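Why do we care about 3D structure at all? Because function follows from shape, and shape follows, mostly, from sequence. That is the central idea of this module. The next example makes it concrete: a single protein chain, its amino acid sequence, and then its structure expressed as tokens.
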Amino acid sequence: MDVIQNTLYVLTQGMYLRRDHQTIRIESDGKTHLSLPIHNIEAIALFGHIMFTPGVLDLCANQGVPITFLKESGRLIARVDAPVSGNVLLRREQFRKADSSQATVQIARNIVAGKIQNTRALLLRTGRESRDEDDTQTLKTASSLMANILQRLARADTLDTIRGYEGEAARAYFQVFNQMIRKQQDDFILKGRTRRPPLDKVNALLSFLYAVLLHDCIAALTAAGLDPNVGFLHADRPGKPSLALDLMEEFRPLLADRLVLSLINRRQVASKNFLIRDGGAVEMNDDTRRTIISAWQTRKQEIVTHPLLEQKARIALLPFLQAKLLARHIRGDLPDYAPCVLK
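And the structure:
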């Protein structure tokens, strides 16, 4: 178990959460490992086979503490929230814009532009740090392609065209991802982007961090009074948090991808701590998950200057700030949604 920034992460399989008045106890085999007052917890994330009593669910619902259920790989399964709060008028306007092709194109185009700009910045940054001239040139070429896609994206006037440019940029980016891995190159090789299940160690790391990032984006949108399930870039589907997936796009290269590269290049993760299941699925062990969560939270405490607001903020607050900016745009207070692009 880890409690970081008031989020309780339960990663050890077989744990059991019980309610003891206004406290949550985490147990296994009749032994209490951790006891936390509910007022010290803002969210709970359960990975894998973790159980809890109805009393825990009742306490969390009454105190507004969401419980997120994820597979051991980090894939989001479900989320239980307290009754929805916030301005119903804001959500109604969100639904109207989601039904408007013009509004949808405008927001989706800016979301994809933010993702590509942050992707290009990561390529250029890593290229400058590389000591291999071939890798440097490969990354420069990919960043030039990103610049070209951005120019074409600016003229895109349909959602299908925007999604096409996003897909083109993603394919080009993952084709050169291995050139950004400087250490443990024989152990960590991206063999194309695979998700369900991840079929190599790099994909396992990416999928896990994307799931954790999605958890944060859902929380940010909920706090802003928006419905995380009604998006603009991603199509609506039952059980799919489309708007949260929209919001996380600009943060994938900025937070998740950059951290994966750091974990590998700094040797904070090791090949021996990954398991290959029947069928080729790759999973990480509990120690590796804890390492990732710890590094994730450390990264989120770093201070950056928000490019639009021009104020210093912890990285952890960026999804919340962006959710508020999106809400302001939906209400009509801002003419456009401006994604978070850091240099």
